[in-house]
Amino acid sequence: MNSTPLYCAESARRDRADELASRFALPRVNTRPTQGYWLELGPQRLELLTDGKHGAVYAEFVEGAARHRREQGGGRGQPVAKAVGIKGAILPVIVDATAGLGGDSFVLASLGCQVTMIERSPVAAALLADALERAERDPDTRDIAARMQLVHANAIDWLQARALDDAATRPDVVFVDPMFPDTDKKSAAAKKGMQAFQHVIGDDMDSAALLAAAIEAATGRVVVKRPQRGVAIAGVKPSVVLDGKSTRFDLYVIKALRPQQA
Question: Among residues 55, 136, 67, 66, which one has the least CA distance to residue 102?
Answer without folding.
Answer: 66
